[in-house]
# Entry
Amino acid sequence: MSKGRVLVVDDEADVRTSVRLILSKAGYDVIEAEDGAAGINALKSGENPIAVDAIICDLDMPKMGGIEAIPNFLYDFPSCPIIVLSGSATLESTTRLFKPGVLFKQGVGEFLSKPIDQEQLVSAVNKAVNKG
# Structure
């Protein structure tokens, strides 16, 4: 039995594969998307939107990055927890997301940096799914 469904949005195929393998081993179903636009489309496919228990999203991607995609995820799925997974774990990126009054403050629950720490990732997803 699945613990939940997680959307992983990252432009790096090896990162998506790693996250999928880690989360699948932990009991989660994983949907993958290569950028923000593909992530939005994956959730809105057909007449019935796909329900997810958490979204993991990179910030810097071609076409549509996390900064643009996250408000769309929050608009369509306001109660879905979002975890940012980024290789640019700079103070500036983090500050932009958690600044008071910014829309992201309402939905971004965790900021993880690459390379992926398996225990940290599973812990963050467990926490997000149990909260959501």
Remarks:
- Residues 118-131 form the longest helix (14 residues).
- The chain has one domain: 4-131.
- Helices lie at 13-25, 36-43, 66-76, 91-98, 118-131.
- Residues 4-131 form a domain with the Rossmann fold fold (CATH 3.40.50.2300).
